[in-house]
Design goal:
about 80 residues; mainly alpha; about 60% helix; about 0% strand
Length: about 80
């Protein structure tokens, strides 16, 4: 399968799944790579440099948290007792 055909297939699957945002193979690849780095504890500035984004706002698009991530985030806070 060519890269172009893979990209077309990826986009078709995303549309069939009802995803509202424009989804391409590039976005999928980027999202997985970025998410793995961030969840692995690599700093955002380092990740931005690795993927070639000069602005953290651009990186944010690829690393939006899932609802479960937001629900579990407070457990990392230090509680003064």
């Amino acid at each position: 399968m060519s890269a172009r055909r893979a990209s077309v297939s990826f986009t078709a699957i995303a549309q069939a799944a009802g995803l509202e945002d424009a989804t391409t193979a590039h976005v999928g690849q980027h999202t997985t790579f970025v998410t793995q780095l961030i969840y692995g504890g690599v700093g955002l500035v380092t990740v931005a440099e690795m993927v070639g984004h000069a602005r953290l706002d651009t990186l944010r698009i690829y690393s939006l948290p899932a609802e479960k991530d937001k629900q579990h985030a407070p457990r990392h806070l230090t509680v003064d007792r």
